[in-house]
Amino acid sequence: MSELASTFALPDPSAALALAGDGGAALRRLEALTGTRIVLRGLDLQISGRDAQVERVHALVQLLAPLWERGEAIGQVDIQSALTALDTGRGDEHGRMGRQVLATSVSGRPLRPRTLRQKTYVEAIERHDLTLAIGPAGTGKTFLATIQAVRMLQERRVERLVLTRPAVEAGERLGFLPGDLQQKVDPYLRPLYDALHGLLGNERTTQLLEKGVIEVAPLAFMRGRTLADAFVILDEAQNTTCAQMRMVLTRLGENSRMVVTGDTTQIDLPPGQLSGLVEAAQVLQGVEGVAICHFSDADVVRHPMVQRLVQAYARRDAALHQGR
Fold it and tell me: Which residue, 127, 4, 17, is CA-closest to 71?
């Protein structure tokens, strides 16, 4: 079978640098996935390989166009997501996703869903009063929920944000920790603070916390309350007991929305105790107004190593299960 050489012309240096990725990593990844040879000379992307391989690279580059056109560096997750969409006939949907910028970070970085499951998750939050997000670490469950929460606050669709999580793994034994209450719980709530700081900046986050517009609190503080006109995020929900989960779900008040996130492979409850998240995913299946979104290792958007770690542990867990 003959080889084909083709050139893809890029519009400007910013697009060329974005498509190349950090140190040319994106182009090397494209080569590895498609079996082609790719060289960037100025604004010309030179592709050589078999006809079908070259056509595949052209299609992938076109799918990624919404990103490199605005100078956004292409990462391995973006390439893999585009490849999956291409192979499953969802290229048009992926192209629309690339244009779906949800917000801009304080550093100016566009924030968007990066996989089709993330896109589905964002849309579920928009349409449902209660959304459960279940999947491995690094899949954007908490961060995307926080983006949606901040957007709804800024659009005045809710009056406040309530962010909560179990304060201590395997039970909320706050008394054993040093310091006052805030010092006791802050380390466990740090991921939520980090997401807010990335979206709003430290100063604005502090102002909203002081005014009570944003509340970050341990799960125990939710008991007995009615959370109206609020966007509620329950993070690390795999470490809630069934009673805690029922308690927090029934806090939802008028004109409120709730997102519950967790990774059921990282349950820190005592052996034999059922996770409230696991039970909720079973009990709430098919309930009107509830969406349940499941993520996989393919949705990991952190360092590529995280995806490989998740896959390795999944293989180990599967082997242990088969050996029982």
Answer: 17
Q: Which two tokens stand for residue 280?
A: 């909720």
CB 100 within 8 A of CB 89: no
What is the spatial distance between Cα 55 and Cα 3, in angstroms, rounded to a whole number?
Answer: 12
DSSP 8-state code for residue 118: H
Whole-Å CA distances, 289 to 124, 128, 251, 258, 292: 10, 5, 15, 11, 10
Distance of alpha carbon 257 from alpha carbon 272, whole angstroms: 31
What does the DSSP assignment read for 177-238? SSSSHHHHHHHHHHHHHHHHHHHH-HHHHHHHHHHTSEEEEEGGGGTT--B-SEEEEE-SGG
**Per-residue pLDDT reduced to its tens digit, 92-119:** 999 889 888 999 888 888 899 999 999 9
Classify each residue of 59-70 as buried b or exposed e, where b means 16 or more C-beta atoms within 10 Å of its C-beta.
ebbebbbbbbbe
